[in-house]
Amino acid sequence: MPVTVHTSAATRAEREARARQSDLAACRPILAHWISGLPSGRHELGSVWDAWCVAVRNSSKLREDRHPAMRLGRTSFYGLLTADYSVVSLGSRRRALVVE
User: Fold this and answer.
1) Mind listing the pLDDT tens digit for each residue in 33-61?
2) What is the CB-side half-sphere exposure of residue 11 using CA atoms within 13 A?
3) What secondary structure does DSSP assign to 46-86, as a single string?
4) CA angle 80, 76, 60 (to 5 degrees)
5) What is the spatial distance between Cα 49 and Cα 93, in angstroms, rounded to a whole number?
6) How far is Cα 82 from Cα 80, in angstroms, rounded to an integer?
7) What pTM value is reported for the model?
8) Which uninterrupted H or E stretch holds 41?
9) What H or E segment, with its residue span, contains residue 89?
10) What is the reported pLDDT for 54?
11) CB atoms within 10 A of CB 69
């Protein structure tokens, strides 16, 4: 007879939050390495996001490893940039990553 296991919404939310934090931690070193290859100057976040997506999509190693970078969404990506790097406002709802 099958056993039904009920998981509370709070438990599920906690598990998903831990998984997201783990994914972000795994993406940080890859993002740092990738950003180190960008030229110095200001880069609009939309363009940075597009370039990141292309780089991740073209990486056979990340695809083969099913790396969390493949699941990183735009909001989380922008959050990592804001937390770890210099991001400035350009006005009119535009922001830029500053690479030195």
Assistant:
1) 999 999 999 999 999 999 999 999 999 99
2) 4
3) HHHHHHHHHHHHT-HHHHHHT-GGGG--HHHHHHHHHHHSE
4) 90
5) 16
6) 5
7) 0.80
8) strand 41-44
9) strand 86-91
10) 95
11) 21
Residue 20 has, within 13 A of its CA and on its CB side, a CA count of 12
Distance CA 16, CA 22 (A): 10
Q: Is there a contact between 28 and 84 (Cβ–Cβ < 8 Å)?
A: yes
The residues of the chain scoring below 50 in pLDDT are: none
Q: Which amino acid is at 15?
A: R
Count other C-beta atoms under 10 Å from residue 66's C-beta: 9
> What letter does residue 3 receive in the DSSP assignment?
P
Computed over every residue of the chain, the mean pLDDT equals 90
pLDDT given for residue 79 in this prediction: 94
